[in-house]
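[Automated response] Your request has been received and processed.

Submitted sequence:
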Amino acid sequence: MTKVAQAVMAVVHVQAPAQVDPHAIEAELVRALNTYRKRPMSAEFTLAPDHRSRSLGGRRRHGFVGILSFAACAPPPADLQRRVQKRARKALRHRFGQQVSAAVETDITTAEINAYWSAVRGTPRRWP
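Generated structure:
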């Protein structure tokens, strides 16, 4: 019997200078988490739609919805949120400067998963 990979949905809130392209932030998040050697995982992020038009003090808020996939033999660690947040902050600050901040949420309710799923996949979620 083959084991199926485990997946966890994550929401990342990033505040960055207004001139930073959100797609560059998305690419940096994917690169940082896919190349993390201590905990092999594959990360896929999508920029969530935003309806705000102004920035706060020269900084813009961006939201990303992502799926973190782990091999079947290595379940997600208990402190996944802390590890992903630490890795994301470190990579974003190294790339875009100290003005960037990031917060990660991995404890997401079923209602939130259903709402965010279409942003990632474009279709309703069909698995339990």
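Summary generated for your ticket: The helical segments are 22-34, 80-96, 110-121. Strands lie at 6-17, 42-47, 59-70, 101-105.
If you did not submit this request, please reply to this message.
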